[in-house]
Amino acid sequence: MRIATWNVNSVNARLPTVLAWLEAAQPDVVGFQEIKCLDEKFPREAFESLGYNVETHGQKTYNGVALLSKFPMSDVRRGLPGEDGSGVEVDGPQSRYVEALIEAPRPVRVGCLYLPNGNPVDTPKFAYKLDWFGRLHAHAADLLKQEEAFTLMGDYNVIPTPDDAKNPTAWLTDALFQPESRAAFRALKGLGLYDAGELGRQPPGTYTFWDYQAGAWQRDHGIRIDFHLLSPQAADRFRGVETHRDARDMDKPSDHVPVVVELED
Question: Which of 28, 52, 97, 155 is catalytic?
Answer without folding.
Answer: 155
